[in-house]
């Protein structure tokens, strides 16, 4: 099974990033990537997909945002091409943006009917193919030098010929923030589980009773990483869910059905995810990218200086 298409959901307005997200899509906020260059968040996510073998990307966005994204990227490309004509990095970056514009399309979610509905909006784009699903407000940092997070997931899905969701072992007090699951580890494998049960943002008491996974450290649970590979069967399940519940359509109940209907695995990701919409999420993501990339020493020095300054103030 070859995964050539990716879907990125970026329709939410980003209330938690107010006031900046009130004037610009949160996915266009700039971050310094691992190569040391400032880029919009959505570009970093697209490059995660492209560098992992994806050929086409569909971005699910809010009404009117498709044209805004295109115009913003065209403006960035023109500025790089015209203002830095003799600068190699700028011309390289301009080429990347041109490639991005040639290989993405935008589909507007006309009504905010839930995350499951946002995914369903990509049905015609995906067609009868497996696809990679990413979140527009998550950044991913791999622990493997030569293998991005998306590549890890795609490789397992291709090998096992089935849907695979990335997961991270997560401390118990955070399970209320994520879809959480349990399952049996596959024989002779490490960090690969056959999914048995999924609950969206469970209480700790529910997690303790229903979602403990043998082999994990005490107090840890398998929580979604914000990255999946799905077979097109997920769209049929979503369509059934939408017929039964026309609003606030969640993805998690559909994934529970997927686990019951066909082979569906979880992969313990060798990496970390950073939710930009969470408290200090933008700061955490920027620090993580800095430490993982070419600006490692500069980032580390800055952190040490800030900690020293803060410590000095505490003793005055």
How is this structure best described in words?
The chain is built from 11 helices and 13 strands. Strands 8-11-9-10-12 form a 5-stranded mixed β-barrel. A two-stranded antiparallel ribbon has the order 2-3. The protein has helices spanning 41-50, 65-83, 88-103, 115-120, 123-126, 149-160, 204-210, 233-244, 252-261, 281-292, 296-314; strands at residues 5-10, 30-32, 38-40, 56-61, 104-108, 131-135, 138-142, 163-171, 179-185, 192-200, 220-230, 264-268, 271-275. The chain has a single domain (5-167, 186-195, 227-279), classed as Alpha-Beta Complex (Spore Coat Polysaccharide Biosynthesis Protein SpsA, Chain A). The longest helix is centred in the N-terminal third of the chain and has 19 residues, at 65-83. The chain is globular and about 55 Å long. With 316 residues, it is of the alpha/beta class. The mean pLDDT is 91.
Spatial order of strands in the largest sheet:
8-11-9-10-12
Could you tell me the CATH topology label. Spore Coat Polysaccharide Biosynthesis Protein SpsA, Chain A
Assign the CATH class: Alpha Beta
Detail the poorly predicted runs. none
Element-level helix/strand string: EEEHEHHEHHEEHEEEHEHHEEHH
Which geometry do the CA atoms define? Answer: globular
SSE class? alpha/beta
Give the biggest beta sheet.
5 strands, mixed, barrel
Mean pLDDT: 91
Helical stretch tally: 11
Tell me the name of the CATH homologous superfamily: Spore Coat Polysaccharide Biosynthesis Protein SpsA, Chain A
- What's the count of strands? 13
What CATH architecture do you see?
Answer: Alpha-Beta Complex
Percent of residues in helices comes to 40-55%
**Span between termini:** 63 Å
Overall number of structural domains: 1
